[in-house]
Amino acid sequence: MSAALLTPAEMARADALTIAAGTPGILLMERAAAAIVEAIEAAFPDAVRVACLAGPGNNGGDAWAAAAILQRRGRAVAVFRLQPPEKLSGDAAIAAQAFGNEGAPLAAFRPEAFDLVVDGLFGAGLSRALEGEVAGMVDRLNADPVPVLSIDLPSGISGLTGERLGMAVTATATVTFFRAKPGHWLEPGRSHCGSVTVADIGIAPVVLDAIGPRTFANEPALWRDQLRTPADAGHKYDRGHAVVVSGGAAQTGAARLAATAALRGGAGLVTVLSPSSAVLVNATHLTAVMLKRCDDRATLTELLGDRRLNALVLGPGFGVGAQARDYAEAVLASEARLVLDADGITSFAEDPAALFALAAQAADRRTKGEAAMVLTPHAGEFKRLFPDLAAADAMAKPETARQAAARARSIVLLKGRDTVIAAPDGRAAINTTGTPWLATAGSGDVLSGLVAAALAQGAATFEAACAAVWMHGKAAEMFGPGLIAEDLPAMLPKVFARLAAG
Ligand SMILES: NC(=O)C1=CN([C@@H]2O[C@H](COP(=O)(O)OP(=O)(O)OC[C@H]3O[C@@H](n4cnc5c(N)ncnc54)[C@H](O)[C@@H]3O)[C@@H](O)[C@H]2O)[C@@H](O)CC1
Ligand SMILES: Nc1ncnc2c1ncn2[C@@H]1O[C@H](COP(=O)(O)OP(=O)(O)O)[C@@H](O)[C@H]1O
Ligand SMILES: [K+]
Questions:
Q1: Which residues surround ligand 3, an ion (CB under 5 A)?
Q2: Separation of 92 CA from ligand 2 center, angstroms?
Q3: 232-243 pLDDT, tens digit each
Q4: Which domains are seen in the chain, by residue range?
Q5: pTM (whole model) above 0.90
């Protein structure tokens, strides 16, 4: 549960359960303020003139409380507030009254007069778009180079969806409490947060049992126990046999990228299935990856009769059409799990329901109805299978992916900077790794191969997809600038070493 993300409503429940169990709200606020000050001391030790912007709710209360501590520690603190202390209520009123002066109206705030700005305007309670005086002020603040530390969330960012409600603060750093929120990881929220620190304010993790969060940060804690390391006396077949289907002679590179990634990702064996027309070109480029001829569905079905071939990638460079549909049907009728990507997805654009019915039958045959297919669309491909969900602008990305997964009875891995992986049972994970250098031809093919590697090695379908996405992003981070798709598989040994180090 350490990877759980809490929606603002769930976080309010965590607060309420903690308060009901005997911790006063003002104590939580004081601890939140102490965590903010600690973050300031670590990141901005030399900031002398500090402005604390205080909104009308408890986010403002945190700002008043932090202002008091900063002042005691010798910083020159000024509070600019939307409401004077006497107009506040609850814990925020207590914190504001304890500060010692009334602060100044927000209109008097000038960013250029400060070394650091603490943004305590709105957090979890943001309920509508920033407008008027506040919107203008945020605009001026964002245009000024002064660093900003946001309390809980950059004001204007929805903790639920990561959306900008009107206008939003662009922070240098954000300190949130107990657990991060989806809006810290979903774009554009993620880009507004700067570095995110999650502070312990004494909320007991046991409250999560009552809350039952369904959204997670995609971190190793979510899937580490599903990954296998080769056993001392292990055999290559213990690590599964991944299969990648190649396109015709002019489109073979994508399959080979996926195949290399599957092998580096730990599958014991990897075979490229190639149409006759492309066998020669594939043969010239493959070494550890094996090659087999396959020109029709009957051959594929026969090959999959060997149950050791347990995970298959279909789609990269394959071509859109009836043969892709036929092959997908053959794989979903077998015991192997399917990663359907790129052209494989597009081939079902005219009849997504047919694909979903095949996936449902395959899931029904598996233990506990576990998904037998991972769909790996980018936004454009997603729209082809789920046009109505893609059009529902107001829906948060995890919710969109979750509804798609339920409909397709499959794991849906919706790519982008904030890739989301969702399962039919409602779990959704937001990825935490990656760099914009991943936006390069062929990087999606590598990802498909990595998913197949984790499936081949026996990971549960949701966890396999999550692990692959994390490792793919981590490989890009560790490689750094200048990345092309070929570099990703080569980085995997370092990614595994990082994972092993904890
Ligand atoms: N006791 C607790 O429950 C704790 C709460 N904490 C803090 O409390 C915050 C949540 O507090 P609240 O629920 O009071 O919510 P906020 O302080 O985030 O905002 C709620 C207030 O802002 C107003 N508002 C919302 N959107 C607006 C807009 N666009 N323009 C103008 N006014 C707007 C609302 O009417 C309400 O008065 C968290 O973000 C966190 O910083 C922390 O102190 C930890 C403990
Ligand atoms: N700006 C970005 N930041 C981080 N990751 C990105 C970004 N843009 C794309 N990606 C990732 O790069 C990969 C691209 O996949 P895809 O769109 O299928 O490309 P291709 O078809 O060229 O292989 C996905 O894993 C996606 O999440
Ligand atoms: K804030």
A1: 119, 123, 150-151, 155
A2: 43
A3: 777 777 789 999
A4: 4-213 (3.40.50.10260), 221-501 (3.40.1190.20)
A5: yes
